[in-house]
Amino acid sequence: MSDATSPSARGTREPGTGVLTSHDLGARARELLRSHPVVVEAGRRFTEAGHELALVGGPVRDALLGRPGVDLDLTTSARPDDIERVLAGWADTTWDVGREFGTIGARIGDDVLEITTYRSDEYESGSRKPTVAFGDDLRGDLARRDFTVNALAVRLPDGEVVDEFDGVADLARGVLRTPIEPEVSFGDDPLRMMRGARFVSQLGFALDETARAAMIDLVDRIEIVSAERVRDELSKLLCGADPVAGLRVLVDTGLAERVLPELPALLLERDEHHRHKDVYEHSLTVLEQAIALEGRLERAPDLTIRLAALLHDIGKPRTRRFESGGRVTFHHHDVVGAKMTRKRMRALRFSNDLVEDVAKLVELHLRFHGYGEGQWTDSAVRRYVRDAGDQLERLHILTRADSTTRNQRKAQRLQRTYDELEARIAVLAEQEELDAMRPDLDGNQIMAALDIGPGREVGEAYRFLLELRMDRGPLGEELATEALRSWWNAR
Ligand code: ATP
Ligand code: MG
After folding, report:
1. Which CATH architecture best describes the domain 266-436?
2. How far is CA 253 from CA 257, 268, 464, in A?
3. What CATH fold (topology level) applies to the domain 1-174?
């Protein structure tokens, strides 16, 4: 990955916007306001009440990049009580996003606004939560933001773009730079280092060299940040457009050593015979290949498959054995890896469901390799399906993605064998649906409906109802009884 100070990145190439003329800038800001009239109205109301209001951060950045934005984040000179006073009688509902942080949420029609009082937050040394001081001007608020591209604002209601820290230029170059000295900024809130890696993944931007150097210097400070905040940034990084680039930032700066040490641990020194591949690079490739297969899922990006792909081999360093003849083995790295996955994901406070889903995928990622040339019995195939449970589709993706051989023929053979396994699963599933099919009435109900005792006729009636069920699908008790009686009478 090129860094921000290399000549190619200093020019005007993507992944930034290229050049942004002041004409483009004005047009995109106006477009942002046109598509969200509610913020203009909010601007009018705040101004009338004697306060300043501006769109800030994500929505401004994304609008100037020409990307669809998600949230409407606003910043204001008004204190939380005043924010509520202005919103009262206009917003449908308001709520505290975090009063101590000065953020009020508001829903107006279909729009959701998050309005935060100007602030300047700092960690007290050793504390896990930022202490917050409210500020009085927009510039001060913008100075406290993480990166210059997030420190852009659009004043409301008039739409003036406020660019105090050359964020527009950084947006154009695709560079992440802190508005103030990075040591001070990252020292105040070390989570900003994680956010830097996150935006590398989400925006395809490069970290400015001074920011990167500060990250390396201050990497230990990440320890004071709560696991939940780290988890949220890691999740966003993984679900970004280029998670591999973001992960490399984490590993290269040493952040990963603190928040996800299992990842740099994959950088095994290779044995002198080069009998096994670099597990770290392999894992990143599997992640990319899994992402390429996400189309098979209902929704993408999919955090579960991305975590599973990244972590599937974390049991390898601990299980590596050098056998005689230069052979290397990793026995039970699937089981060990699943345990390590649970431990790390729990420490990062991921939800129990997500932890179990990812751990299951890690544990099952090798199972297919016992399939050989297709020698599994039907019952082995059924067990595979049962053990995967609701993770079956993801297991298909992970197993296919876990082939990074350069040998084309070998790769194709693996994919074909897996096609075959999937086909067998489909056939078995269909058969089992048929096997499970029952008529709408059971023997006792048939005897009651026809007022007959046990005998040959009950079997005949049963077969009639089964045929009916196959032809017409489930009918329910009443209709089935009616149909049974008319069949009986016509007989
Ligand atoms: P997205 O909402 O797409 O994840 P975003 O840039 O809006 O991206 P948020 O986490 O919603 O990110 O934060 C909103 C804005 O608040 C950011 O754009 C940034 O200006 C500022 N911000 C958020 N977290 C921090 C932080 N830890 N330090 C400094 N500024 C921050
Ligand atoms: Mg946001």
Report:
1. Orthogonal Bundle (1.10)
2. 9, 18, 72
3. Beta Polymerase; domain 2 (3.30.460)
Task: Name the amino acid, one letter, at 78.
Answer: A
Start-to-end CA span in the chain (Å): 80
pLDDT on residue 198:
98
Q: What is the pTM of this model?
A: 0.84
Q: Is the CB of 145 under 6 A from ligand 1?
A: yes
Helices (H) and strands (E) in the chain, counts: 24, 13
Looking at residue 323, what is its pLDDT?
Answer: 86
CATH 3.30.460.10 boundaries in the chain: 1-174
Residue 177's nearest CA partner among 142, 140, 150, 204 is 150
pLDDT at 357: 98
Provide the CA 66 distance to its chain's centre, in angstroms: 22
Q: How far is the CA of 166 from the centre of ligand 1 (A)?
A: 17
For the record, the structure tokens of 280 come out as 């770290």
> Does ligand 1 lie within 6 Å of residue 419's CB atom?
no
Q: What is the pLDDT of residues 146-158, one digit of tens each?
A: 999 999 999 999 9
Could you give the CA distance from residue 182 to residue 215 in angstroms, rounded to a whole number?
Answer: 8
Q: What is the CA radius of gyration of the chain?
A: 30
CATH value of 181-260 in 3.40.1010.10, 3.90.960.10, 1.10.110.30, 1.10.3720.10: 1.10.110.30
Query: What pLDDT sits at residue 6?
Result: 39
Query: Which letter does DSSP use for residue 163 in this model?
Result: -
Rounded Cα gap, residues 134 and 143, in angstroms:
13
> Could you identify the atom of ligand 1 that is nearest to the CA of residue 195?
27
The pLDDT, as a whole number, for residue 5 is 38
Residue numbers in the chain where pLDDT is lower than 50: 1-13
Six-digit token string for 461: 């009636």
Distance 307 CA to ligand 1 centre (A): 23
Position 455 scores a pLDDT of 86
Distance 347 CA to ligand 2 centre (A): 25
The structure tokens listed for 277 are 């591949």
Instruction: State which ligand 1 atom lies nearest to the alpha carbon of 202.
Output: 3
The C-alpha atoms of residue 51 and residue 46 are separated, in whole angstroms, by 5
Position 485, amino acid: R
Q: Assess whether the C-beta atom of 119 lies below 6 angstroms from ligand 1.
A: no
Please choose from 103, 150, 170 the residue to mutate so as to test ligand 1's pocket, defined by most ligand atoms within 8 A of CB. Answer: 150
